[in-house]
Amino acid sequence: MRTDIRNTRRNFMFVGTATALAGCGGAAAVTAPPSATNNAAPLSGNGSLLQNSVNWSTANGRRVVQSNQVPDHDNVGPFPAFACPHALKAVPVELGMPLVPMPLAQPLAIGQSRFGVALNGILLDPAGPWWLGEPAKGWQFEVMSERIRHYQGLDASNGHVQPSGAYHYHGTPQRWVKQLAQTMAMAGPGGPGVDSTLLIGWAADGYPIYRPFVPDVAAGAQALSRELRPSYRLKAGLRPAGAPRGTHDGTFVQDYEYVPGLGDLDECNGMQLAASPEFPNGTYAYFVTEGFPHVPRRWRAQPDPGFLVPLGAAGADESPPQYAGWPAA
């Protein structure tokens, strides 16, 4: 069992007065990096300093994480802000996942659920709100799109705060991943290189989550690594009748289609690894990528029920106001 408590830090850029700011509407032993020094700590809603707290353990065939969902890196927030009026708070959560995944006959779409957890205890939660607030219509906003992230208030780490105060990631938390890689590399011989395979979290079904770099075997011993590519692309033409008007431009998850063999990864944004530092005999693994789907949107095995969120459940990300009444084509 391991418990880490760290300061959450970022560089603040104050514009105007403080009043104006306040008025804004087997890898459990991997240690996440310490925060950068000489940065101001973010404030909770009552003005107190927040600290990251995360504990990973294994028992009874399960991997368990206890987290307060406070990030441990810079480039966070600030929250509340114009597009994300919720204050960052410590929101304790305990989640478990199987040590031995149970593969499904067919991949399972995550819908509005949480996909997994990063090693620093922050949820990887890519699901966006539904068009018109109606999951039955089948059009879900893609929060990582340039049109929508502005309305969701994503920060430089591709995270934001839900109404509960819990912080979560919609895409790659680049700063934290780089800090983790640097810390691991400095830990001693055999640590990961700048672009090598690096565990960053665990999925709800028990499979590991890595950053998208693997050794480039085909290029020979001189090559450090290569970046894995997703196999999704934008659909051509206009959205169909009854859907949000316009072309398939990436505003919605359904603007994308999976094309087998287009990239390196499957429809779950994963692949079979021959070996990794945590699994020398190989494993199926997921990857968080720069391109869509960013955080995977499907599970290859049975997810733990604790990660599941019913479609249309209250408290999830809110629909962008500009598109709340968007007429159909």
What layout of secondary structure does this protein have?
Elements (H helix, E strand, L loop, with lengths): L1 E6 L10 H5 L28 E9 L2 E6 L25 E6 L4 E7 L6 E3 L4 E2 L21 H7 L6 E3 L5 E3 L4 H13 L12 E5 L4 E3 L2 E2 L11 E2 L4 E3 L21 E3 L11 E4 L9 E5 L10 E4 L28
Parallel strand pairs: 7-9, 11-17
Antiparallel strand pairs: 1-2, 2-3, 3-4, 5-18, 6-7, 6-10, 8-9, 10-11, 12-13, 14-15, 16-17
Can I get a quick summary?
With 329 residues, the chain is mainly beta.
Could you name the key traits of this structure?
mainly beta; 4-stranded antiparallel β-sheet; 3 helices; 23% strand
User: What's the number of helices?
Assistant: 3
Order of helices and strands: EHEEEEEEHEEHEEEEEEEEE
**What is the straight-line distance between the termini?**
54 Å
- Structural category is mainly beta
Strand content: 15-25%
The description of the largest β-sheet is: 8 strands, mixed
**Total strand count, please?**
18
Shape: globular
Helix content: under 10%
| Largest sheet: spatial strand order | 8-9-7-6-10-11-17-16
Mean pLDDT reading? 81
Compute the CA-based radius of gyration: 20 Å
Low-confidence stretches: 1-41
